[in-house]
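Predict fold of Class III poly(R)-hydroxyalkanoic acid synthase subunit PhaC; 374 aa.
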Amino acid sequence: MTASSPQRLRSFVTSQFQLTRAVAHALKARPFNPYPYLKPFIERASGVREPPVSATPHTVVYTRGSMRLLRYAAPRRRHRTPILFVYSLINRWYILDFLPGRSLIEHLTNEGFDVYAIDWGVPGQEEERLTWSDLLGGLIQTAVRWTLRVSKSRDLTLYGYCMGGTLALAYTSLYPEGIRNLVAQATPVDFSKGGVYTLWTSANHFDVDSLVDAYGNVPTPVLESGFLMVAPVQRVTRWLEVCRRIDDPDFVTTFLAMERWGADPVPFPGEVYRQYIKDCYQQNLFHQGRMKVGGENIDLGRIQASVLNVIAEQDTIAFPAMSEPLVKLVGTKDAETRRYPVGHIGLSASSKGSTHVWPSIAEWIGARSKAMES
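Predicted 3D structure, encoded as tokens:
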């Protein structure tokens, strides 16, 4: 036995005790994400501190209620046409600006794009009564106008991700002015292909009216429970995997950043959720062109902007079959689907992003954007 062996043994026993205690506290509190309890142990064992998510420099150019419009200015702007990100209402926008070197927004700014993103914030009582009409004709339309104003451009690329893509498509159908290009990334369109999510939200099993009437905004544990039930074992095994790879700082950094984001969900605005579940999942009206917002049908055939349909082949949230019909539904002739061998989150946060995904998307947008005048 070497001189350091007793110290290593004591350290191992102490670490095991701390981990056991952290797990016990987590089980007692029964959170959907044990990150706050297990993070200190992982940090001590690995020597890695909580990584700097959302590190790309940005400014706030507009606020309204809980919503903020963020601007990520390019170090050297090459494109007159800016990009406006519309993210989902379920999680936080900063998965788009994940880590330095692992950030879709950082990549696009380095490519010379003037980038903007909607941060929906944390919904409160005011957002309980928010409707799809308020969302599209109010918040998103205002974000479009401010993006054009600040960027000094006549049109933009609207970039929607997950449910944010559904919102971007609906917005462009109703308010096409100023939308030059539209990127729909991992975007549900045909909700009858939603697998277990379609089954669980069926009107035969799920009374959305009672839920919204009781809570107002839909609480995060209700939303998180669905994702937990899809992969219940993975919620535990991924923590075992990080313990196994505790000496790999890159792996631990990515793991802690992802868990931090996953542990930061937000409530879902109640009235928006009510119509989303009824019109999209329960009746599939969005796919059929019969979903009404402000008395008008969401008809994707009215979309004349160039459309890029981005599909993650390993997506278990917005299954590829949900996104595949898009290019046949839009009115434009410039519509294309590109598929990538990653998962739902991998499109914007995986190690393959900077080499396999983002350059391809940036090339498509750049070819359809106005250049800066020399």
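Residues 59-368 form a domain with the Rossmann fold fold (CATH 3.40.50.1820).
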